Amino acid sequence: MQDRMSLIVFSGTVDKLMAASILATGAAAMEMEVDIFLTTWGLEAFRKGHYLKNTKVSKDFEEYAPIMMEQMMLKKVPSWMENLQGAKEIGNVHIYACSMTMELFGMKLEDLEPIVDDITGVATFVERAKEGRITLFV
Amino acid sequence: MPERTDLHIDKEIDARGSFCPGPLMELIRGVKSLPTNGVLAVLSSDPGSARDIPAWIQKARHEFVGAFPEQGYTRFVMRKLH
User: In chain A, how many H helices and how many E strands?
Assistant: First the structure.
């Protein structure tokens, strides 16, 4: 029975998605089961095609956005989406869309990137997180 | 700790310039296609990976042969045990 990391991704800025993706990757690499719960802006970030154009950085640090993007490109840092794809490939990672946000934003599963596995409600996610060793909110 | 290993390396992965979690991810992918008893070396210049790589090898129950410092990078050598 694998240890579980539950990761609630609320944020939709590249800096935070990057942090979330690296945490998920690290956990997957260390053979933890990873549950990712996408809600609000985190869910929006997984709308089909959105990640290709997302250059948002947290408001407090927005003046660093251009240099951050430039450095990531120069140093060939994989994007947060690439990290998540890698994590799924090498480990046990599930990505769930928050049902409430889906309703609010009028979205269906097919409107999301195929990396999203399913839609789930908060109660199910909390039950799974309760069994986990690590729960994080990004 | 010997300076080099005389073990025959079946697969070498150059992850220099790539940073955490890159080298570890490349190691994991490399191990998947390695036959049991195969010896794999990963070259990494990333300090985070310097700890992650031996930790992963131990966690995954393979043999950590050693970390051999080179010019500006480290060669991590492991043997796949299962």
Answer: 6, 5
pLDDT in tens, A83-98: 999 999 999 999 999 9
Mean pLDDT of B5-22: 90
Longest Cα separation, chain B: 32
Q: What is the pLDDT of residue B20?
A: 83
> Domain range spanning residue A112?
4-137
Q: Which of A48, A40, A52 is nearest to A114 (CA)?
A: A48
A11's tokens: 């944020």
**C-alpha span between A41 and A39 (Å, rounded):** 6
ipTM value > 0.90: no
Of residues B22, B32, B56, nearest to A30 (C-beta): B56
User: Tokens representing A112?
Assistant: 């999301």
| Chain A closest-CA separation from residue B7 CA (Å) | 26
Q: Can you list the domains of chain B with their CATH numbers?
A: 11-79 (3.30.110.40)
Chain A contact set for B18 (CB, 8 A): 76
Ranges of H-type helices in chain B = 22-32, 47-59
Q: How many residues does chain A have?
A: 138
